[in-house]
Amino acid sequence: MAGIQEIYELVEKGKAKKVAAAVQEALDAGCDPAAILNEGMISAMDEVGARFKNGEIFVPEMLVAAKAMKNGVAVLKPHLATGAAGAAGKVIIGTVAGDLHDIGKNLVAMMLESSGFEVIDLGVDVSKEKFLETYEANPDTKIICCSALLTTTMPALKQTVALLNASAGRENIKIMVGGAPISAAFAEEIGADAYTEDAATCAQKAKELVA
Amino acid sequence: MLTAKQNMIECMKGGNPDRFVNQYEAIQLLFHPFMFANPLLQPGMEDVKNAWGVTNTFPKGVPGSFPVHTPDKIVVQDIENWKDYVHAPSLDFSQEMWDQCKAMYDAVDGEKAFKAAFVAPGLFEQTHHLCEMVNALTYYIEYEDEMHELIKYLTEWELKLAEGICSNLHPDMLFHHDDWGGHDSTFMSVNMFNEFLLEPYKEIYGYYKSHGVDYVVHHSDSYAATLVPSMIEMGIDVYQGCMETNHVPELIKKYGGKISFMGSIENAAVDFEGWTDENCEKVVRRVCEESGSKYFIPCIAQGGPGSVYPGVYLSLSNAIDKLNREKFGTENPESARLPLQIMF
Predict the structure, then answer these.
(1) C-alpha distances in angstroms, A96 versus A92, A99, A158, A162?
(2) Tell me, what CATH number does A45's domain have?
(3) Cβ contacts (< 8 Å) between A199 and chain B: which residues?
(4) Cβ A63–B183 below 8 Å, yes or no?
(5) Domain that holds residue A51
């Protein structure tokens, strides 16, 4: 019988094809869906994130783990209380205007989802107005993540954060920024709440910010 | 005074360079006929399909072109049947086309600069151009056999290109592009890298070196310090694009004599809105001081002579010339090199 520990191991090892069956088996055996999610999958992704941050595993291993979790959540979702899969809160994410590089942004989105956040992914080349408009349409948003990979799009990141900082309800959200040329000093200078240097740290920091 | 090329040779062999090598001054990047059949995009050109079927775009204000991977534009729609989607473009060019390229090689003063065949993208890049990045990285774990087969197919194509280049153009240097990491980490583990890419690259670079090419410069503007032993085994002489995150002075200490490092000047440190000559000079002085003139070439990290913001590359070159004048008494370096090639 597949138990929570087996699901944990399957997610950690990125066995995407086997996770769905294991989750179904655990459900059939009467395991608590919330425990499968939290102790089986989210805990496994926390471990994956920590190992990635330590340089023990790399992007491919993290991707297959996130894919495994996604497959497991698909089976689990109908059995969870509404909203449980995104219980950590809502996050809006995108690369800023003019920036079309989405690899890092996608990794961050996956790690946030895997940490229990509901992610609204606006994609790439997102105008500052679109970030604000999405926040206004989703006032329960907890975090807005914006990234810029290029020195040429750092001004767009600054403008986006400035617009969000001037918005009503600013006190209810945290703004996180990232991308290769970005630093903690730049984040502070433009008025963001946090900068993290990789996807795993971002997910960890996001959990701290909403705790 | 040594010519720029002689000076770079002295730098690479740890001999007696008489000044810092100044970025790409000793490397003349040259084209081959496939690049005319499959042209590099210029800034402002968007959504252009290349000879492999990959759609590329090059918006203004970014360092280079990159592939577009909306679902409809991903070439490999099914990795288990990649052969149905990946069709290598022809490399059969007329002698007239080869001759036109050869004329460009012949026009370069081989005493002052290497005649460097430019080849891009590399094997890893081509896999993610064809499959999309997240898909490709996932396939390296989930579809190992298919990825080995795909890389073998790409390698055979590169070897055929190498045959044409070596037999028709006779370069003495290869400048080969393949980004293997991001700013702080490689994309994959050393084991995975070696499993998929080491032998194919040994074959490709081995071919060039056994057919007249003296030096292989490999570009990866990234962290890749952990891959340096593999680079040496592949036959790479110069790792171009090495970012500061590689801790270049330590690499020089550890691997100098087996490989040289060209870079350390990250675009983020010098190439931004409001850039200044003063900042360029400050960064040049720092990296040169840290790494010295042997086994190290101070250079902007990006893959080719140029910068995102016009003027930055030239400013860096001017700063290196200034430092060479102060430190080595080098006057009139222009007389020992070709006019600087600034491509973008």
Answers:
(1) 12, 6, 9, 13
(2) 1.10.1240.10
(3) none
(4) no
(5) 4-84
Amino acid at A29: A
CB B202 within 8 A of CB B224: no
A8 phi and psi angles, rounded to 5 deg: -55, -50
pLDDT at B183: 87
Query: Which residues in chain B are contacts of A101 at CB distance < 8 A?
Result: 66
Q: Check whether A100 has a pLDDT greater than 70.
A: yes
Taking CB atoms within 8 Å and a gap of at least 24, the contacts of B8-11 are B8/B114, B8/B297, B11/B260, B11/B293, B11/B294, B11/B295, B11/B296, B11/B297
Confidence label for B306 from pLDDT (cuts 50, 70 and 90): very high
Q: What is the mean pLDDT of residues B211-229?
A: 97
Gap between the Cα atoms of A23 and A37, Å rounded: 9
Backbone Cα Rg of chain A: 17
- Rounded to 5 degrees, φ, ψ at B331 are -110, 145
All residues at 6 or more sequence positions from A68 whose CB lies less than 8 Å from its CB, including other chains: A10, A11, A13, A14, A15, A16, A18, A19
Residue in B with minimal Cα distance to A155 = B273
Number of domains within chain A: 2
Instruction: List the single residue in A with minimal CA-CA distance to B139.
Output: A60
- Name every residue in A having a CB less than 8 A away from some CB of B: 14, 16, 55, 57-61, 63-64, 67, 98, 100-101, 103-104, 106, 150-155, 180-181, 197-198
Q: Which of B137, B147, B155, B125 is nearest to B64 (CA)?
A: B125
Residue A105 near residue A111 (C-beta atoms within 8 A)? no
- The answer to whether the peptide bond before residue B229 is cis (omega within 30 degrees of 0) is no
Q: What pTM does this model have? A: 0.90
Tally of CB atoms within 10 A around B311? 14
Q: How far apart are CA A130 and CA A132, in angstroms?
A: 5
| Rounded Cα gap, residues B326 and B289, in angstroms | 13
Q: Which of the four pLDDT bands, split at 50, 70 and 90, describes residue B39?
A: confident
Instruction: Say what the pLDDT of residue A83 is.
Output: 65
B3-34, pLDDT tens digit by residue?
A: 999 999 999 999 999 999 999 999 999 999 99
Which of B140, B185, B267 lies at the smallest CB-CB distance from A55?
B185
Is A103–B134 a contact, with Cβ atoms under 8 angstroms apart? yes
Question: Are residue A97 and residue A175 in the same domain, yes or no?
Answer: yes
- Cα separation, A79 vs A43, in Å, equals 19
Closest to B247 measured CA to CA, from B218, B229, B227, B224:
B224
Please state the length of chain B.
Answer: 344
Fold of B4-30+68-336: TIM Barrel (3.20.20)
Same domain for A151 and A165, yes or no, is: yes
**In the sheet where B66-67 sits, what is the strand order?**
B48-49, B55-57, B66-67
